[in-house]
Design a protein that fits this description.
The protein has about 55 residues and is mainly α. The protein has one domain. The chain is about 80% helix and about 0% strand. It has helices spanning about 5-20, 25-40, 45-50. The chain starts with a helix and ends in a 5-residue tail after the last helix.
Length: about 55
Amino acid sequence: MSTTGYAYALYNQSLEITERIGDVQTKAATLHQPGILYADKGEVEQAIALNHQKPQ
């Protein structure tokens, strides 16, 4: 697995945990970070999609 792939996997784990415990602030911050990775790779649509998700 690439370093970026590993980072995505860890972000996904973090999202699952923050959703389970209801930590809205951390979920919002966690959604932001992979968006930066996607934007850096030129995958702007994925970055925008993550940044438009609303923590619930």
